[in-house]
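ugh ok fine here u go
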Amino acid sequence: MKIAVAVVWLWGLVSFFVAPESTVSSAGRLVFGFLVVAHAVECVVFLPRLRAAEGPLGPHLLQTFLFGIVHVRGLEPARS
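structure:
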């Protein structure tokens, strides 16, 4: 599933380097903007769960920003 999300990110990123009047370019930029906003919100919403997960917070935030709920669903809480 993370591969599918990465492909969508890549499409959005590549859309900035193709002809601006292209429909694919416009849609890609829109999707890219949506991903940035949606995944930034997910980082904030899931911050308590990310803090409770095993491992350092930084990599969890990065993966949540890149993959969103796909990463968060795979987290297990830290063991006490």
